[in-house]
Amino acid sequence: MTPPPHLPAAQPDPTDSAPGVGTAFDTVPALDGELRFDQAALDAASTDFGHLVSRPPAAVLSPGSAQDVATMVRYCRERGLKVAGRGQGHSTNGQAQVPSGLVIDLGSLDSIEIRDDTAIVQTGARWSTLVQASLPMGLTPPAFTDYLELSVGGTLSAGGLGGQIGRHGTQVDNVLELQVVTGEGELTTCSPTERPDLFRAVLGGLGQCGIITRATLSLVPAPRSVRHYVMFFGSVAALTAQQAKLIEDGRFDYLVGQALPTPDGWTYMIEAAAYDGAAADDARLTGDLEHTSIEAQDVPYFDFLNRLAPAVEAFESMGEWKRPHPWYDSLLPASTVNAVVTETLSGLKAGALGVSAVVLLYPVPTAQCRTPLPVMPDEDLVYLFSLLKTASPGADSAEEMVAANRSQYDATVAAGGRWYPIGSVPLTRNDWVHHFGPFWAELEAARHRYDPDGVLTPGQRIF
Ligand SMILES: Cc1cc2nc3c(=O)[nH]c(=O)nc-3n(C[C@H](O)[C@H](O)[C@H](O)COP(=O)(O)OP(=O)(O)OC[C@H]3O[C@@H](n4cnc5c(N)ncnc54)[C@H](O)[C@@H]3O)c2cc1C
């Protein structure tokens, strides 16, 4: 695929092996869906939101059923071919790519059934579609990512962190049951009580032990309206202190934050929200907060969840959405967050982030994160600190940004932090072992049990 003129060509990775392709897909059994070899399908599966690496697969499956996924995983396993599921391709470093293997584009598996207070969802569905299906029943998933156009399977494979984390944990904390195709090509179900080892290894497990084809998710009553507050603070310490207090007393239903560049340095923002009926309570909710300014408005619930959409549209029209995105995401313990964030932000040179960059900084109470993955630092309160970079024209190159991510990773680890593994950081196997920490042995055992031939999701480069 020829990149648009403003993009550096995404580089094929010379270390990728190319196991027996050629006639590898000649004897495929009958499928409910379609196996595609056309250039459009191969091009789409060989890129992602990061535009940093490009590894073309040999074929793309558009499954017509979960059984198709199982059939093709078995087929590939027998022939030494690698396989990965792909949701919306919003990874930033080739995590859903499979050089010369099979990408399973789960977008064709997107059915949604709302039953009582649960949603039974095929994992190619997007969160935006799911919430639009549940809202007419007065229900909503409790936890969201900032951006709703990610697939259910994609975020359940990563973790799914967002502003509801203080109330409801991550997206993986709100899963009741999964249907999974293992690396042996077995179609099975798992839950906290049925094959719990598989359940624990697949949720937040970066596709290493199974491809999730269906998820049963808990739903909660949906608010009709949201009181949305935006408040500014003068320092990192002021921001994190207020966020810690708000997490502790739980007065808001939603809480995130950002560092924003200004001509005079950085300013710090909290976005907080209170659901239904909070309008009369402005004084109670914000009267004691030491902000420098505040805005508040009432918005319908879906518009609140989807409030990133206009910014995405603007980034698309600027061309920024299609540029390389060497993202860095980390989780820092409360004890070191102020020092790391202050040092990082003060050390950033012009051009280090790109014009449409976003710097996230918000609290995560680890007691709410009940699944073993994603891995959290070992403190009661930690902070998500993300440098969401774009290699804009005139900014640092994508390669320079990736190299800076590696230095940031080392600083994160030295400060007792972990990375949130959705971004673009070159990691060694030892880094991964350290990253998973006490869970590494369990994950490795699950990998041997459920994907003994190492078929699944090579783009994560873990095993
Ligand atoms: C604009 C934007 C905003 C974001 N906001 C947030 C946020 O607020 N919070 C947050 O936590 N994350 C956020 N992310 C990160 C995002 O959650 C992850 O990158 C997620 O994996 C992307 O979902 P996807 O459907 O695009 O997955 P893909 O990029 O298609 O796949 C991601 C990985 O998961 C694997 N995978 C995909 N589907 C399955 C499946 N069904 N079973 C097993 N493995 C699978 C793939 O093989 C790949 O390794 C954001 C990303 C972007 C680009």
* Named CATH architecture of the domain at 225-419: 3-Layer(aba) Sandwich
Tally of helical segments? 14
Determine the strand fraction and express it as a percent band. 15-25%
Low-confidence stretches: 1-22
Question: Roughly how many Å apart are the termini?
Answer: 29 Å
What spatial order of strands do you see in the largest sheet?
Answer: 15-12-14-13-17-18-16-19
Report the bound ligands by name, code or SMILES. flavin-adenine dinucleotide
Query: Cα-atom Rg, whole angstroms?
Result: 22 Å
Range of helix content: 25-40%
Net shape = globular
Largest sheet: 8 strands, antiparallel
Task: Could you tell me the CATH topology label of the domain at 225-419.
Answer: Vanillyl-alcohol Oxidase, Chain A, domain 3
Give a quick set of tags describing it.
463 residues; Vanillyl-alcohol Oxidase, Chain A, domain 3; 5-stranded antiparallel beta sheet; 14 helices; 19 strands; 28% helix; binds flavin-adenine dinucleotide
